[in-house]
Amino acid sequence: MGKFDWFWKAMGATAERNDKKSKGIVDRSQELAKDFASYSDSDVVAAVRGAVTGAGIVDKPAFLAGLSAASTRTLGLTPFNVQGQAVLRLLEGDVIQMDTGEGKTLVGAMAATGFALTGKRVHLITVNNYLAARDAEWMRPLVEFFGLSVAAVTEASTRDERVAAYRSDVVYAPVTEIGFDHLRDNQITRRSQTVQAPADVALVDEADSVLIDEALVPLVLAGNVGAQQATGQITEAVSRLVTGTDYVIDAEGRNVSLTDDGARKVERTLGIESLYDAEHVGDTLVRVNLALHAQALLHRDVHYIVDEGKVSLVDASRGRVAELQRWPDGLQAAVEAKEGLSVSEGGRILDSITLQALMRRYPTVCGMTGTAVEATEQLRTFYGLHVSVIDRATETKRFDEADRIYATAAEKNRAIVDEIEHLNSTGQPVLVGTHDVAESEALADALGERGVTVNVLNAKNDAEEARIIAEAGDVGRVTVSTQMAGRGTDIRLGGADEAARDEVVGLGGLAVIGTARHRTSRLDNQLRGRAGRQGDPGLTLFFVSLEDDVVVAGGADSAVTARPGQDGRVADSRVQSYVEHCRRVTEGQLLEIHAQTWKYNKLLADHRDILDERRATLLDTPAAWEELSSRSPERAKQLDHLPEDVKVQAARDIMLYHLDTEWSEHLALMDDVRESIHLRAIARETPIDEYHRIAVREFKDLANRAVDKAVETFNEVTIDSAGAHLEAAGWKRPSATWTYMVSDNPLSGSGNSFISGVANMFR
Ligand code: ADP
């Protein structure tokens, strides 16, 4: 491993972070709790309020005892000692590691209440909409016991609901909604339009997933900038073209091009001289080609479906709708136009932010997860966070079997089916974690052929997913999951109502099977953590083949010779440690990629901060008017007759318009620069230095240009008692915006994507 020695050393050291002190506090709070039992509700509240000041918690034992009493009274849950420790660590701003089923929901709510009592607003960041709504409702009585407010923001929340929710003391929301609202708030032109309210603390559930795995996923706000008319015309023109004479499709069906005849027809319909004139090449011609691509190459119900007036992409390799994905904007618009739908045309990226940049905006970040230790180094490097490991309330009775290693993928797959069939014949519930949809379906088919009934989990609906997962512990159940099975949902033995609990305990609890190691041990451990909840018995077992992606990618620089048995199994301990080695290598590679990519993102994040500050100044002060009138005093004098607030708002609208437009262009430019940086970088400089140089220079230009353009507009545009008539002058803000996340990030590698699409691999 060499290069990553420091990483492993750091991990070991921090994992042992000692919590002696907090254990002492918890013990004392236990003593106090006895007295608290006889207190009235208002006495409990008074005791807790007395234990905190604006600066923090001054009497931790009393504070914890009061919170515990409140939990017992409101939720019927008396926190375990370890939960109390976890709360204290969170309040110190750590990421805590607690196993699945150990009660992180309660811990999070208690810590959030603690922060709120010291006057801090908390965003409790959940993995999905479903959990935001569920947890906010579940924990509401506890938070409200102290006279504090709690609310959830989900995808379904209206604007007014969001405005109200964000003003609560504790806000439960998925990270995507928080990010999208932040981006939208950065487009407002009056302070009163703000949706979010500042928060002091982000308490992140499944912290490693949000802070590390998805850290570099950009959330995007795109805007509609008019020009629908033109697209309609272009679509119309293109729809009259005939294949063969007006356009030709290449042999592979991937490209389409206009013939001279076709070009002439389009020119006639659009009433323009030539598509190839300078004025049309950059815009009209591009859009004609997109419309042609949409018409000739993309087919409804093959490449996309139309549902509720919307075009949704079908993911080719998975054969199902890819919810948040879009084509590059022009193409999306072209397909919409072809289908006669309202067009999200001219879609321009107005703004985007990565989850990492979003999280770094909070003064305090803390979090909880079942797997933090393995992410210790990343959490420290990227966020300055410490990891605290919290003991289990009850000893685990889970048995983690050693990996079963096979020479080839085919042999491994056969063994997986055999093992599941065997476990199922005993009645023991089995949860299988696969790496993609194709694999899960192939496995389900193969099991079906053996007469094993399978629930396949295609996570499309959070609530449905949670229900299937919750049922996964019932007798005879086989659940094949396509991704990290329902992080955040509890698998109870004997079904969600635990009716057959004793029987399943007798069978050995839940058996968890991994069909391949993931690229990071954290993902393996998340899957393992589904079994053995709260001292339940359980079994976990991973299958590995020497053809797996992780082994191939991680073993590139070394080799191992092994002699497989008849069934292809390799039982050599050297091979066992070889697989470990390969995985450490891939883990190291991911860390490198993350560190590298963040270097690029960091600068943009810093620029964003500067931009935010500038926006705030323009929104909250008369700075816009002052700047414009000092740059153009004559124009200012002409406007003397207007009321002060009208002038200030007009100047603000003008300044913000240009600032936002320039920023949007800056993002597009820097994206291009990044794509081409390896070509541009001159010999003496490293790409990242070159990138920085360009970014800094461009950002400075941006600032100047935004002001210069604003001055020009200030001089030209009509300004009267109704304000600046920007739209009439062609400076139109997007009339509609939409949000999405870019899904293809380099860190989401599934582990063995090379087998996806092979339908019969389990036979
Ligand atoms: P995690 O998110 O850590 O996997 P949950 O918050 O979903 O765990 O809690 C798992 C289960 O444990 C829930 O059913 C919850 O009601 C229960 N639980 C949590 N804390 C306690 C407690 N102090 N006493 C009894 N049950 C608890």
Automatic annotation (TrEMBL):
It comes from the Bacteria. SMART domains: SecA_DEAD, SecA_PP_bind. The keyword Cell membrane applies. Residues 85-221 form the Helicase ATP-binding domain. Keywords: ATP-binding, Cell membrane, Cytoplasm, Membrane, Nucleotide-binding, Protein transport, Translocase, Translocation, Transport. One of its GO terms (biological process) is protein transport by the Sec complex. PROSITE patterns: HELICASE_ATP_BIND_1, HELICASE_CTER, SECA, SECA_MOTOR_DEAD. ATP binds at residues 83, 101-105, 490. It is a peripheral membrane protein. Residues 415-586 form the Helicase C-terminal domain. GO terms for cellular component: cell envelope Sec protein transport complex; cytosol; plasma membrane. InterPro entries: Helicase_ATP-bd (IPR014001), Helicase_C-like (IPR001650), P-loop_NTPase (IPR027417), SecA (IPR000185), SecA_Actinobact-type (IPR026389), SecA_CS (IPR020937), SecA_DEAD (IPR011115), SecA_motor_DEAD (IPR014018). It is found in: Cell membrane; Cytoplasm; Membrane. Gene3D superfamilies: Helical scaffold and wing domains of SecA, P-loop containing nucleotide triphosphate hydrolases, SecA, preprotein cross-linking domain. The keyword Protein transport applies. GO terms for molecular function: ATP binding; protein-exporting ATPase activity. Residues 4-572 form the SecA family profile domain. Its EC number is 7.4.2.8. Belongs to the SecA family. Monomer and homodimer. Part of the essential Sec protein translocation apparatus which comprises SecA, SecYEG and auxiliary proteins SecDF. Other proteins may also be involved. Part of the Sec protein translocase complex. Interacts with the SecYEG preprotein conducting channel. Has a central role in coupling the hydrolysis of ATP to the transfer of proteins into and across the cell membrane, serving as an ATP-driven molecular motor driving the stepwise translocation of polypeptide chains across the membrane. This is Protein translocase subunit SecA.
